[in-house]
Design brief:
Length: 404
């Protein structure tokens, strides 16, 4: 039996607690992406290897997190998104325990790889679950609220790893993350026991996992959305990755101070979350894209021209607000690309974002090495507004076609 359609009263009444628990799970998943970075020096000393060799533990997680989402998306469509998320939470918790107990770099690397495999299911399937259970009219606001956990995870992951690593040792970081996963996963199982309708698959199986992916890719609008998110990921992260290096090279900031740049971006994203309901009502989807693009253009131009670190920090904050204005709109359409295979659709969405990020940074790196970061900031200042305006125009055309 399928779960209620997104427009039904039961769907509109999807419990707030479910969204809170999914947001906590997203916090742990997002924090895990960067939590190991400040621990590399400790890991190199603990395992008697170089920092470069120790970084394989970080690379293993990121690789698994980017690739295995393709498996989880169709799996969630077939067996239910919330059950897969809950199992992923407990699986990730167990893998974090293995990380905390690691006696060698090889053991830790394997544990981090498995953590990436399990944790990668959480964010895309949680968003797909929102798509199944929340009407389209309310979905963007609900996804923005869900983003609270993900944004806080990105904001605090590096700081949490550094602080706990300094105070209690590197193993404590993984014990804490394991606890956060359990805090989300176990209550999800309790909720599914009380509300079985929340655990059901959205509809009948769409065949094999490959078949479900093809179902999504056959739709022109789905191809448009994933192409835009790939370009967005490459243009934004290809430039933003070098903000820290630019602050250090141009203004001589310490690496500790540079860490606040990531926090400023997260603070901007969190600001968007707080006011998203008002912005969605005031601007609509096309307005969010347009003004998000304008904000990104101003932000990256500000980074390129910044006469002081304070100005660049303000630009980084603006980039956080503006990025989520555009990206949250893309996420909303990602949940609607193929309603009958929503998990597969969000898996492709997440994969294309990952591919864009993976391509953007190496393309920008030689430019930064030769001319510094400002040229790639200028490139982002042009590409991202143009992309946002194009997507806004496509949204207008699509809306007119649907009304016809």
């Amino acid at each position: 039996m399928a779960s209620p359609s997104p427009s039904s009263p039961a769907a509109a009444a999807a419990p707030t607690l479910a969204l809170v628990l999914l947001s906590i799970a997203a916090f742990a998943s997002a924090a895990n992406m960067r939590v190991i970075d400040p621990l590399l020096v400790q890991l190199s000393a603990a395992f008697d290897v170089s920092v470069g060799q120790a970084s394989i533990a970080a690379t293993a997680f990121l690789f698994a997190n980017g690739v295995f989402v393709l498996v989880h998306g169709p799996f969630g469509d077939r067996y239910g998104k919330m059950p897969v998320v809950a199992l992923a939470c407990l699986g990730a918790a167990l893998c974090c325990v293995f990380s905390a107990l690691a006696g060698s770099l090889g053991w830790l690397t394997l544990a981090r790889f498995l953590t990436g495999v399990t944790s990668s299911a959480i964010i895309p399937l949680a968003m797909a679950w929102v798509g199944d259970n929340v009407s389209y009219e309310r979905r963007q606001m609900m996804l923005a609220r869900f983003l609270t956990g993900q944004t806080l995870g990105l904001m605090t992951g590096t700081a949490m790893g550094g602080a706990l690593g300094d105070w209690l040792g590197w193993r404590s970081v993984f014990w804490v993350l394991a606890g956060v996963y359990v805090v989300a996963g176990l209550p999800l199982f309790v909720m599914m026991r009380q509300r079985p309708d929340l655990a059901r698959a959205a509809g009948p199986s769409q065949g094999s996992m490959v078949g479900q992916m093809l179902t999504v890719l056959k739709r022109p609008w789905a191809l448009t959305v994933v192409a835009v998110v790939a370009i967005e990921g490459g243009a934004f992260w290809g430039a933003f990755t070098f903000v820290g290096a630019d602050l250090h090279d141009r203004f001589g900031l310490s690496f500790a101070a540079v860490g606040f740049a990531v926090a400023a971006f997260g603070a901007g994203g969190f600001t968007y979350v707080l006011v998203s309901s008002h912005l969605v009502r005031l601007l609509g989807e096309r307005g969010l894209c347009t003004w998000g693009g304008v904000g990104l253009g101003i932000a990256f131009a500000g980074m390129a021209l910044a006469p002081s670190p304070e100005v660049e920090f303000a630009a980084v904050y603006l980039s956080g607000v503006s990025f989520y204005m555009l990206h949250n709109t893309l996420q909303t359409h990602g949940t609607q690309m193929a309603p009958e295979a929503r998990g597969a659709g969000m898996a492709l969405f997440a994969l294309c974002l990952f591919i864009g990020q993976a391509a953007g940074v190496p393309l920008a790196a030689p430019i930064v090495d030769r001319w510094g970061a400002p040229p790639v900031f200028w490139a982002a200042a042009v590409v991202l507004p143009v992309l946002a305006f194009i997507f806004a125009a496509l949204l207008k055309r699509r809306a007119a076609r649907l009304r016809a």
